[in-house]
Amino acid sequence: MILYYHCYVDLESNSYCDKLRRTVMYSLIFLVFLLVQTKAELFTSSAHLQTALYAERDIADLLKSYIQREEDRLSRIKQLAEDYEEHSKLALQNLDKYLGNPINAFLLIKRFTLDWDRDVIPVLVNNSWDSMYKEIEQVRSDLPSHEDLKGAASALMRLQDTYQLDTSKVAQGDLRGIVSPVLSADECFLLGRLSYIENDWYHSNLWMQEALVREEKEEIKSVSRADTLDYLAYTYAALGDVAQALELTKELLTLDPNHERALNNKKYFEAMLRDEPRKTRSAEEKPGYQLNRDEYRNSEEFLTYEALCRGETTMPLKNAHLLTCRYVTNNHPLLLIQPIKEETVHLDPWIVVYYNVMSDEEISTIKHLATPRLNRATVQNSKTGALETANYRISKSAWLRGEEHPVVERLNQRMEAITGLDLNTAEELQIANYGLGGHYEPHFDYARKEEKDAFKSLGTGNRIATFLNYMSDVEAGGATVFPYLGLKLFPRKGNAAFWYNLYKSGEGIFNTRHAACPVLVGSKWVANKWIHERGQEFRRPCSLSEYE
């Protein structure tokens, strides 16, 4: 048996590579001795003994080097463990407040996606620790994914648009006056790059500009200025400012004269400016770049919705002087001893807010029941009737039946007493949680005439009314707004909103079209009860008048 080892080995070399080669060679030699029946022994040759001594020395060096690397790695793992322990301990002191901050939520997702891949996996991956690594990977299946990171970035852009957040202030830790973590140049760059991947040149431009500003202030650079200039130049070109794109490309080439893409882009931008000189803008002609949105998001309805979300007044409330507050019993036994507080917030359509509908204990119980079941909320396709997810509704929801728990049944009975309606044909209690940027754009709760099969499977008719319980306070954002009424209701824990979706004739009330504003800071929990037509024949009799 003959083994060939095609490598010249200098036994006096001390390089790591040479030591490794010698170790491999000696292992092969020993393997030959084991495989080949021979009478030769090491003591018969001093050369062999010498070789063994060199091998022993090199093995000792390799082991020491391995131990040092392992000690360094263990020291790093210890630092990671302490960092995770300190970070989670701080966050868990007030979970809702911490996760309610969109920057905290974004950075938490980044922590277990990009940072995990870059900083943690290289430390943990080790042949001797394969079993431990597999266990960690199993736990990691419950942590955020790269898709979550992309979704978090998209949510931040949505918040930025809806609440007109200044990029620089957000990066500096200011969310409309609420203190938030400061973003590094690298994190601003990441937001710009994620927007870039989605061809969102407007937001990519904003965040790449901010990345440049923050990079200049950093003593230890967290991002390459050349990379930032590369992305930023392209976003300017995509936004139509080729002159600025060319200037940034030239700056990039001063940093890296051999940057292949920049060299090609420079030629391309110069050609564009020669062919279309009107694309060259002076500083005075640059009022700012406009957000490129679809036709609906530039509509009066959507712009009104966003303005209401910001707390702006879009129109005066009609007959505001006639709005009242009162105690209500409806002569119902559940309310006689403790009447419910009712505030009329709009007269036509009639919309009211009820105070202290749910106790903290009831809210806690319902959250506990719903949390394990939360799934991405769906909407009904107006054509097929099928339930599907949609970008205009971002939340997670679960459904609870009254027979599942006394608290759920007690809440159902209370809502029936307050409204005077029969809840036997109502839908199950829907629990919804709106997290980072969670929202539901303007929509109707009732099925319109063209949606003939919307509730056909239920056999209970259309949604006659909505009872919306707020189960949390929201620090900023998260209002329920009615664009055609100029009405905005901000969540207050324990309170509830109620309105009829249909006239007594069964016709839909258009002005009940409403929306759930994006949650800026905080976590929004609601419990919806959609009450249907069947069973209300004697409690809310029909009318011959179409709009009564």
Taken from the alpha-carbon principal axes, the silhouette is globular
From the N-terminal CA to the C-terminal CA, the straight-line distance is 101 Å
Mean pLDDT: 85
The radius of gyration over CA amounts to 33 Å
Q: Biggest sheet: strands side by side, in what order?
A: 3-4-5-17-13-20-11-10-6
| Protein structure class | alpha+beta
Number of helices: 17
Q: Report the major sheet.
A: 9 strands, antiparallel
Spans where pLDDT lies below 50 across 5 or more residues: 1-17, 23-49, 282-287
Q: Which percent bin holds the helix content? A: 40-55%
- β content, as a range? 5-15%
Number of strands: 20
EC number: 1.14.11.2
TPR repeats: 226-259
Subcellular location: Endoplasmic reticulum lumen
Family: Belongs to the P4HA family.
Q: How do you describe this structure in short?
A:
The chain has 548 residues and is of the alpha+beta class. The chain contains 17 helices and 20 strands.
Descriptive key words:
548 residues; disordered N terminus; five-stranded antiparallel sheet; alpha+beta; 15% strand; nine-stranded antiparallel sheet; 44% helix; 17 helices
Please characterize this protein's 3D structure.
Its EC number is 1.14.11.2. Its main location: endoplasmic reticulum. Belongs to the P4HA family. Catalyzes the post-translational formation of 4-hydroxyproline in -Xaa-Pro-Gly- sequences in collagens and other proteins. The chain has 548 residues and is an alpha+beta fold. 44% of the residues lie in helices and 15% in strands. The protein contains 17 helices and 20 strands. The strands form 5 sheets. A 9-stranded antiparallel sheet has the order 3-4-5-17-13-20-11-10-6, covered by helices on one side. A hairpin with a 4-residue loop joins strand 15 (480-482) and strand 16 (487-489). It starts with 15 loop residues before the first helix and ends in a 16-residue tail after the last strand. The model is unreliable at 1-17, 23-49 and 282-287 (pLDDT under 50).
